[in-house]
Amino acid sequence: MWRTICAHFKKVGAIDLNRLRANFGIAVTKVKRPSQLTLLGRSEARLPASPTEARLETFPNPAPRRNYRIHFETDDFTSVCPITGQPDFARIDIDYVPDRLCVESKSLKFYLASYRNERAFNEAVTNRILEDFLKACAPRQANVTAQFSARGGIALTVRADYPDAKIPNAGDEL
Questions:
Q1: Active site residue 88
Q2: Is 170 part of a structural domain of the chain?
Q3: In a domain, 171, yes or no
Q4: Model pTM?
Q5: Which residue among 81, 93, 95, 132 is the active-site one?
Q6: Contact criterion met (CB below 8 Å) for 92 and 146
Q7: Of 75, 76, 88, 95, which is the active-site residue?
Q8: Looking at the 3D structure of the chain, how many domains does it have?
């Protein structure tokens, strides 16, 4: 069957299969994994016990001259209420415009999972995620939005932005 298809395309002239075969190895060369990425491609890696132990890994931005937005989202985030010890579940969205570095997604997954035993208020968790993100990749712009599931009938959403927007004082005009 393959020979029939090849013969057809040779006759039509749509694709030069001999040239394609000769160049195919060049087109799909393996990319070397940057040495700073320690989690990607390793199934034996263990989740860090806390955000302090976690490491957000980065790689060079492939288009540093362009402003483009990267969006991460997960519905699997859990932290712990510092007062009750009950779990807090959240959807986390991270949007950023990279500068020189991009955050590798598996390391982000491990970093976020490290909060599963972390006792902190939702506001503190969201701001810490942003701060750690800024330290890791120094983006041009970033925001973290955490939508925490309802507790006692009230849902809570926290959004932390970089650069900070000026927050007006109570007497300032909007």
A1: yes
A2: no
A3: no
A4: 0.73
A5: 81
A6: yes
A7: 88
A8: 1
